[in-house]
Amino acid sequence: MDSNTPTAQEVDETLKRLSSRKGVKAVVILNNEGQAIRSTLDETLTKQYGQLISTLVQQARTTVNTLDDQNDVTFMRVRTKKHEIMIAPDREYLLIVVQNPQESIQQ
């Protein structure tokens, strides 16, 4: 394990901190193969989000790289009528946060 790899405790703390934010409905952390490491969703939804978001990120990376081979995707935000899905891809991990945008901006 290199010094940049988070410990299980750090991952759990991050998951807890993100989950407690107002409006956050789910947090999923995937490895670079699209398999869930941690999730606040049930197993079925975790697999569905993992597969679909991993595919979306790969397509976005291919698109960005085709347009500029010196560039890469660092963050994605997908807003739907019901939710906002924030995606932070890294070399080894993929962080997905699903939130209700109305709740997150209300005081």
From TrEMBL:
UniProt xrefs under Gene3D superfamilies: Dynein light chain 2a, cytoplasmic
UniProt function note: Acts as one of several non-catalytic accessory components of the cytoplasmic dynein 1 complex that are thought to be involved in linking dynein to cargos and to adapter proteins that regulate dynein function. Cytoplasmic dynein 1 acts as a motor for the intracellular retrograde motility of vesicles and organelles along microtubules.
Record bears the keyword Magnesium: no
Family under the similarity heading: Belongs to the GAMAD family.
Location of this chain's protein in the cell: Cytoplasm, Cytoskeleton
Classification via InterPro entries: DYNLRB1/2, Roadblock/LAMTOR2_dom
Roadblock/LAMTOR2 domain location: 11-99
Keywords: Cytoplasm, Cytoskeleton, Dynein, Microtubule, Motor protein, Transport
Full protein name: Dynein light chain roadblock
Organism annotation: Lichtheimia ornata
PANTHER family (UniProt xref): DYNEIN LIGHT CHAIN ROADBLOCK
Principal subcellular localization: cytoplasm
Pfam family of the protein (one): Robl_LC7
A single cellular component GO annotation: cytoplasmic dynein complex
GO biological process: microtubule-based movement
UniProt-recorded Gene Ontology molecular function terms: dynein intermediate chain binding
SMART domains: Robl_LC7
